[in-house]
Amino acid sequence: MSLVTTHVLDTAAGRPAAGIPVRLLQRDQRELAAGTTDEDGRIGDLGPDTLPPGVYRLVFDTADYLGPGAFFPEITVTFRIADSQAHHHVPVLLSPFSYSTYRGS
């Protein structure tokens, strides 16, 4: 399993959000990995097994999933990795006009 994983839940529909492209970036915007959420809304293999401590970003391309009137066509979650050996799960709860995130397990 990669050091960073994610999943997206569509809270308005009450189901996982499948088909959302996600990119893992370093702070300088260099792309480290990319994937697309599966039928369960998850990406379990997003990037390397280890990353040096630092600030990273997950960029969720929600435009196609939410449609042409999407209020949030893209969501960027910036987070810090302090322990390069610990698993970092960064989920997003999504609805048409809001989103939230947290450090998962």
Automatic annotation (TrEMBL):
Belongs to the transthyretin family. 5-hydroxyisourate hydrolase subfamily. GO terms for biological process: purine nucleobase metabolic process. Catalyzes the hydrolysis of 5-hydroxyisourate (HIU) to 2-oxo-4-hydroxy-4-carboxy-5-ureidoimidazoline (OHCU). The lineage of its organism: Bacteria, Bacillati, Actinomycetota, Actinomycetes, Pseudonocardiales. CDD domains: TLP_HIUase. It comes from Prauserella marina. Coiled coil: none annotated. Keywords: Hydrolase, Purine metabolism. This is 5-hydroxyisourate hydrolase. Pfam families: Transthyretin. Its EC number is 3.5.2.17.
